[in-house]
């Protein structure tokens, strides 16, 4: 059991949640999965190592400070992140996106928490997510992305079996989020992704021209 140290060596779950900008439940899940190092007091309270929180914040730093992609980061491939806790649907997504024969770089995640941390390392152009998931659900993911000025440009598509009334009961979705019901409407999704690819390409060309002029 760790001995008492300076106040900054160990912090409470609430303090870690505030520093990371996540819910208490999300932080608890990170402890259970080993992403955060923690121990329990005799009274059953968690104490989390400050340096493990600092390490996660360092991983997420690129998304917090990210501006327009520079020439070294630009790519012709359109980055798509899919978050779906149903194993069969993850397989269906992967097969469908591969059949589209589009210039996609696809990453698929089962857990919202893993996806949220991956955004910090390499933000996608498009996030496709379910809403009802264990741990960090789709609502919380979207809230975190829209609360961060550095990730406002990520296009978001929700594919969920929740009704419009159920979504509203959870606080609703931002007006710029596209929402589809299940089963996944791959034909409509395909057209949407094609349009986004064209838009992103034009934006990258314009940004490149501006840099060249400067």
TrEMBL record:
<dbReference type="InterPro" id="IPR041657">
    <property type="entry name" value="HTH_17"/>
</dbReference>
<dbReference type="InterPro" id="IPR010093">
    <property type="entry name" value="SinI_DNA-bd"/>
</dbReference>
<protein>
    <submittedName>
        <fullName>Excisionase</fullName>
    </submittedName>
</protein>
<dbReference type="InterPro" id="IPR050595">
    <property type="entry name" value="Bact_response_regulator"/>
</dbReference>
<dbReference type="Pfam" id="PF12728">
    <property type="entry name" value="HTH_17"/>
</dbReference>
<dbReference type="GO" id="GO:0003677">
    <property type="term" value="F:DNA binding"/>
</dbReference>
<dbReference type="InterPro" id="IPR011006">
    <property type="entry name" value="CheY-like_superfamily"/>
</dbReference>
<feature type="modified residue" description="4-aspartylphosphate">
    <location>
        <position position="130"/>
    </location>
</feature>
<dbReference type="InterPro" id="IPR009061">
    <property type="entry name" value="DNA-bd_dom_put_sf"/>
</dbReference>
<keyword id="KW-0597">Phosphoprotein</keyword>
<dbReference type="InterPro" id="IPR001789">
    <property type="entry name" value="Sig_transdc_resp-reg_receiver"/>
</dbReference>
<dbReference type="GO" id="GO:0000160">
    <property type="term" value="P:phosphorelay signal transduction system"/>
</dbReference>
<feature type="domain" description="Response regulatory">
    <location>
        <begin position="79"/>
        <end position="197"/>
    </location>
</feature>
<dbReference type="Pfam" id="PF00072">
    <property type="entry name" value="Response_reg"/>
</dbReference>
């Amino acid at each position: 059991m760790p001995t008492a140290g300076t106040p900054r060596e160990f912090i409470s779950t609430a303090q870690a949640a505030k520093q990371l900008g996540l819910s208490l439940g999300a932080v608890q899940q990170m402890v259970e999965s080993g992403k955060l190092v923690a121990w329990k007091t005799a009274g059953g309270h968690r104490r989390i190592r400050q340096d493990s929180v600092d390490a996660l914040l360092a991983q997420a730093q690129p998304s917090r400070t990210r501006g327009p992609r520079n020439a070294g980061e630009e790519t012709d491939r359109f980055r798509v992140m899919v978050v779906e806790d149903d194993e069969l649907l993850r397989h269906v997504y992967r097969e469908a996106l591969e059949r589209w024969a589009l210039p996609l770089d696809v990453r698929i995640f089962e857990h919202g928490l893993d996806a949220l941390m991956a955004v910090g390392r390499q933000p996608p152009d498009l996030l496709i997510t379910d809403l009802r998931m264990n741990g960090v659900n789709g609502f919380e993911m979207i809230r975190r992305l829209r609360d961060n000025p550095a990730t406002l440009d990520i296009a978001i598509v929700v594919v969920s079996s929740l009704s419009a009334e159920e979504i509203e009961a959870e606080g609703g979705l931002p007006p710029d989020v596209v929402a589809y019901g299940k089963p996944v409407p791959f034909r409509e999704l395909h057209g949407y992704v094609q349009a986004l690819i064209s838009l992103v390409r034009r934006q990258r060309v314009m940004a490149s021209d501006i840099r060249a002029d400067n």
